[in-house]
Automatic annotation (TrEMBL):
Residues 113-164 form the RNA polymerase sigma factor 70 region 4 type domain. Residues 25-87 form the RNA polymerase sigma-70 region domain. This is RNA polymerase, sigma-24 subunit, ECF subfamily. Belongs to the sigma-70 factor family. ECF subfamily. It comes from Clostridium cellulovorans (strain ATCC 35296 / DSM 3052 / OCM 3 / 743B). It comes from the Bacteria.
Length: 173
């Protein structure tokens, strides 16, 4: 049975098939969520919300061949909503802690440099980078997800990569 037939079964209410579809897409969705959330727990929350929303609204999916695109749109919208809500939260930090970071914290900081640079991008550029490098989508698939012409996506990708290179050079210096 091909993917399109499985999606049709899920639309009709087959929970096992829906679970299978989520399972085969979970890695790409998680990578996208982590790119927005910057930590595992928040990414898992975004992913959980995405699966829930997909489950309750799968019957509204008109074209089964666009299942992955539809699912990715749900995830991106959830991620954006999550990060916008999180920006409104003010954390009280403990100023009594020592200023030295452990080896593990430094390692994590180094790993997050690229994610922080991606975060500095305008939203339209950030979406293209995340979809291209975290979801492994093609230019055409990104254009479908974002409802933009492929030429626009190529332009956004080039501009985003130039800005990322600039941001990364600034952080190294």
């Amino acid at each position: 049975m091909n993917l399109e037939e499985q999606v049709k079964l899920a639309i009709k209410g087959d929970e096992e098939v829906f679970e299978y579809l989520m399972d085969i897409n979970k890695e790409g969705l998680y990578r996208t969520a982590i790119a927005y959330a910057k930590n595992e727990q928040d990414a898992l929350d975004i992913l959980q919300e995405t699966v829930y929303k997909a489950y309750i609204s799968i019957d509204k999916l008109k074209k089964p061949e666009y299942f992955k695109t539809w699912l990715t749109k749900i995830l991106i919208n959830n991620a954006i909503n999550f990060t916008n809500k999180k920006k409104k939260i003010v954390y009280i930090e403990n100023h009594n802690e020592k200023g030295t970071a452990s080896y593990e914290e430094k390692s994590i900081d180094e790993k997050l440099d690229i994610l922080e640079s991606i975060d500095k991008l305008e939203e339209k550029y950030k979406k293209v980078i995340v979809l291209k490098y975290f979801q492994d989508l093609t230019i055409t698939e990104i254009a479908e997800v974002l409802n933009c012409p492929t030429g626009t996506i190529k332009t956004y990708l080039n501009k985003a990569l130039k800005k990322l290179r600039l941001f990364m050079n600034e952080e190294i210096v």
